[in-house]
Structures are given as C-alpha cells and as structure tokens.
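User: Let's play a game. I give you a shape written as tokens, and you guess the letters that built it. Ready? Here's round one.
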C-alpha cells in the first residue's frame, strides 16, 4: 500500500533566524507579514546609523513592538552591530538584561549598510572572548570584501581566511554562519563538532545564478551573498531537508523599494517574509521531506540558541495555488515580492 500524499501539516510556529525589518514606514509595511507566521525573529541591526549599543537596540525593539499589529505575539530578538569600538561590557549588559540575543559581524563593506563593520578582526577579540564566556552567539555575514576576490568565491575564502582563525582563537564562541550559499559552507558546518550552525534563506533554496543573469538581468533575484551555481543550491536543499540540527531557517528577507533596486547600482536584497512558508513547503515536498520542515523552521533554531520552541502551532494546507501580491505598497514606495517561479499550493491556515 502506498502512503497517501500529505495535504495538511501542523508544525510548531516557526521562527526566522535572520530578518531585516528596517524602520519607519517600511517597518510598518513588512512587520505584519513576519508576525503573521513567525513567533520570533533575529532582527538585523544594519540600519542607518547601525544598531550598535544596548540603548539603540532597546529603542529599536520598542519601535518594532509599537508597529506590531494588535493581537500578534511576535517577539523581536535583537542583535548588536559589531564595530571595532564595541565595548565588551555593553554587550554583556545587553545580553544579561535580555535586550540583545546575539551580535552581528559584518566585514566592512560586505553588504547593505555595512561601512561600520569590522576590518581588523583582532580589534574585536575582547568582545568575542566576552561573548564566549557568557554564551552569546555571534551571527556572521560570511563573505570577504577584498576587491581581488571574485564575488562568487567570497564565502569560501571567508571560511579559510576569517572564520577558521576566529574559531581557533575563540573556540568556545557560538557562531551562526548566516545565509550560507555554497557546498563549501555546508561541508564546513557539517565537519565541525560544536559551536557552529548555519542559517539558509528561502530564496537560496530556489534560485541559482542563472536566475539572476540568464535571459536578461533580474534585479529582484539579486541579494548578498549572491546565489551561486546549481550544484550549490542542491547542497543547500540537501542540508535543509536532512534534519541535521545545525541548519535552520533565516529568511534574510531584506526589503528595498523598486526604485532602490531598479537603478544603475541597485540594492541587494530579496523580500520573502510574506510567502516564505508556502515556498518552503513546496521545496520540502519536492524533496520528499515535508516531515523535516518543522525541524528546519521551528526546532533547530531555538535548540541552537538555547531557547524554548514556540508553544503555538501553525497548519499548512495544500490546495489551489495561492495568489500572493507581486508588489506591496509601502509608505516609501512599491516593494516587489519574491517570485519563486512555480505555483505555491501550500498556505498557512488562518
Ligand atoms: C541585506 C540588506 O539589504 O540589508 N541584503 C541582502 O542582500 N541580503 C544585507 C545582508 O544581509 O547582506
Ligand atoms: Zn541579511
């Protein structure tokens, strides 16, 4: 007897372990989409100016909570933007007071609003040692920024030149390699015995570099780290659906208005908060791994961060294709929603 195909799936409410909510009108436009499906999210600190201190993180958290639609229990987990001037004591205090969950490391110039990032990694060593001592995770944007390194190689080179040395010098530091895009990163995480995990985005499970560059340039598929070859996408899918506890969802949903993306020097970032769960259900179903979706979206992340899983559940239902908006009107301009290029049959039951 063959098993009936699954058409309903109830899982613990998911969390998003890497999210850009921005501020002001954009925050108001995108926050409801995350709050609809997700219980918590690790909030990226790359505002202008960046969220560097405990005080700034607390103020940003208050602005997020104020923008939260009534009746939603979404919890923003704040991060501090690591600079060469970050004070270890301020970080420790923010962690102890429950203001900041993690610290974010951007190599200077790696991505949107990362000019204040780190150039000399020895300068931040005291902060990293303090974090190791108190068990506070470091979220890492894993790309070198050297102009002589090919953009498609920047993640793999980062592992060898930056991440291995940091983890060797501060082995007790808990690291999250964010939005991994290569088989190299997947292998590196799999080969480590402790204190290393990785987030994977929705879009990197779906697109490869051809989607961006073949048959005309597609700015709405441009993000950082940039999508790689198909063999890397396949390695990411295998890691995500494997059930391996070191891999979990971080959407890296990063809203930019259309005018900001569609210009001679367009911004990096893909907006997926609204349709991520539908996209992921398709990816996991196609891989014959719907049963592993909950581990990826709802169990592995809290486990690594040392937090309880969400008490609530959500139910995904399969039916006729769901019509998501292609564009969302925000107070600062239109925002294009990620188009996976295939119909989405799964929706989250209201
Ligand atoms: C992010 C953004 O726009 O803030 N962009 C992106 O392409 N992912 C920054 C980042 O996380 O790299
Ligand atoms: Zn990001």
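Assistant: Ready! My guess for every position:
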């Amino acid at each position: 007897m063959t098993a009936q195909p699954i058409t309903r799936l109830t899982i613990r409410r998911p969390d998003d372990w890497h999210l850009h909510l921005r501020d002001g009108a954009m925050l108001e436009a995108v926050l409801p989409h995350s709050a609809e499906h997700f219980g918590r999210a690790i909030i990226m600190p790359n505002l202008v100016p960046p969220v560097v201190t405990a005080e700034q993180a607390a103020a940003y958290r208050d602005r997020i909570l104020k923008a939260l639609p009534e009746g939603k229990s979404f919890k923003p987990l704040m991060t501090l933007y690591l600079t060469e001037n970050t004070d270890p004591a301020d970080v420790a205090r923010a962690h102890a007071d429950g203001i900041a969950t993690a610290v974010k490391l951007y190599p200077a110039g790696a991505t949107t609003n990362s000019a204040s990032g780190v150039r000399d990694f020895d300068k931040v060593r005291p902060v990293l040692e303090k974090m190791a001592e108190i068990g506070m995770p470091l979220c890492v944007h894993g790309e070198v920024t050297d102009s002589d390194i090919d953009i498609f190689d920047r993640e793999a080179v980062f592992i060898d030149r930056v991440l291995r040395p940091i983890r060797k010098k501060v082995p007790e530091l808990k690291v999250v390699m964010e939005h991994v895009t290569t088989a190299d990163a997947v292998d590196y995480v799999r080969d480590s015995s402790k204190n290393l995990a990785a987030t994977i985005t929705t879009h990197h499970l779906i697109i490869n570099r051809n989607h961006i560059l073949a048959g005309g340039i597609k700015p709405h598929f441009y993000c950082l780290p940039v999508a790689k070859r198909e063999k890397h996408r396949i390695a990411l899918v295998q890691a995500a659906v494997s059930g391996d506890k070191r891999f979990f969802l971080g959407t890296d949903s990063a809203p930019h208005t259309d005018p900001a993306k569609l210009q001679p020097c367009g911004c990096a970032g893909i907006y997926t908060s609204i349709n991520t769960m539908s996209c992921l259900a398709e990816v996991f179903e196609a891989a014959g791994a719907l049963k592993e979706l909950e581990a990826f979206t709802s169990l592995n992340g809290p486990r690594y961060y040392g937090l309880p899983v969400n008490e609530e559940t959500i139910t995904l239902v399969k039916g006729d294709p769901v019509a998501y908006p292609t564009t969302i009107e925000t107070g600062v301009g239109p925002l294009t929603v990620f188009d996976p290029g295939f119909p989405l049959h799964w929706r989250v039951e209201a």
